[in-house]
Specification:
Number of strands: 3
Strand content: under 5%
Radius of gyration: 22 Å
Structural class: mainly alpha
CATH topology: Rhopdopsin 7-helix transmembrane proteins
Order of helices and strands: HHHHHHEEEHHHH
CATH class: Mainly Alpha
Shape: globular
Distance between the termini: 51 Å
CATH architecture: Up-down Bundle
């Protein structure tokens, strides 16, 4: 086996080994909280949705990539290709949208209680489930081409406007379809990435201003307040930063492929890896920064109900005020 395939197998096997248990642990723990306490706070509903789509991304992209690197060829039929391609693309889009929603919700929570923010403070946390359902609808409506134009790899005539998806191909048939699909996806991606970046920067600005305001308080209270504030900011901003960096790497490699006549397989593998990496890294960040998850896992571990290799003894501040 060539070195590229060995590295590919190691890389995607690692993503699968980390991403699936991490996201499943988050889902199971939040379900336990929901059953025990009869409700979830809005930020935790968002995190539950994020773990769900992360798991789908790993299952529909990470696992097939790992299988392909182990030497298996053409194991999906047309129906399976359409299903996997559709679920992956919608789930990938949802990771962008839900990460953006997480940062915007945190921004609304931490914003000063002024008249300009009052409407958002009343509406956004209360309607996060409706917003998530709407985002599912929007992302599903973007990808009818996956159902119509994705097929298994076989010996038949194709157009020149093709994307190779490991075991499958996406034949856009016409240049107009190819451009329209790419334009819609690019607009969605850059809009939500830009919005989550702006929201995260605003969070940092709010906390910086608040830190200056509490300088007159006695030292012990000031230090405790600053620690809580900066930990809360770090948890949200860290997730957004990870996504923006990986999105930048993915986009940079994609732009590189537009200017070369023959793309090396290693470049394509790296782009897919960076595009999937967030779904494996984000559960680690969530588990290490969400106090509700940590408390529930500790209690479950003491009772012998849950034992997690990713459990931490940290008591950092959660992703939102709760």
């Amino acid at each position: 086996m060539e070195l590229r395939l060995i590295l590919k197998a190691i890389g995607f096997s690692s993503l699968v080994a980390i991403g699936i248990p991490g996201n499943v642990l988050i889902l199971v723990t939040f379900l336990h909280i929901r059953i025990a306490e009869k409700h979830l706070l809005p930020p935790n509903i968002i995190l539950f949705a994020l773990a769900s789509v992360n798991l789908l991304v790993i299952l529909t992209k990470g696992v097939p990539q790992m299988v392909k690197s182990l030497g298996f060829q053409n194991i999906f039929n047309d129906y399976e290709c359409k299903t996997i391609s559709f679920v992956y693309r919608v789930s990938r889009g949802m990771t962008i949208c839900i990460t953006c929603l997480l940062s915007c919700n945190q921004c609304v929570i931490l914003a000063p209680p002024s008249k300009s923010w009052l409407f958002m403070k009343q509406r956004v946390p209360r309607n996060v489930t409706v917003i998530i359902v709407a985002l599912w609808f929007v992302n599903c409506s973007i990808y009818p081409s996956c159902i119509l134009q994705v097929r298994a790899i076989a010996n038949y005539t194709t157009s020149e406007y093709i994307l190779y998806l490991e075991f499958c191909i996406h034949d856009f048939m016409t240049f107009a379809s190819y451009v329209a699909n790419g334009t819609v996806i690019a607009l969605r991606d850059f809009f939500f990435v830009g919005l989550m970046t702006i929201a995260s920067v605003y969070i940092v600005v709010i906390l910086y201003r608040h830190g200056k305001q509490v300088r007159g308080i006695r030292s012990s209270d000031r230090n405790a307040g600053r620690t809580a504030e900066y930990k809360a900011a770090r948890s949200v901003v860290l997730l957004v930063t990870i996504y923006v960096v990986l999105f930048g790497l993915d986009s940079g490699l994609w732009m590189y492929t537009l200017f070369v006549s023959r793309v090396a397989p290693a470049i394509s593998d790296a782009r897919v890896f960076f595009g999937t990496l967030y779904s494996a890294l984000s559960p680690i960040v969530i588990l290490k920064t969400n106090k509700k998850l940590q408390t529930t896992l500790r209690c479950a571990h003491k009772d012998g109900a849950i034992e997690s290799p990713m459990e931490t003894k940290s008591s950092d501040v959660p992703l939102s005020k709760s």
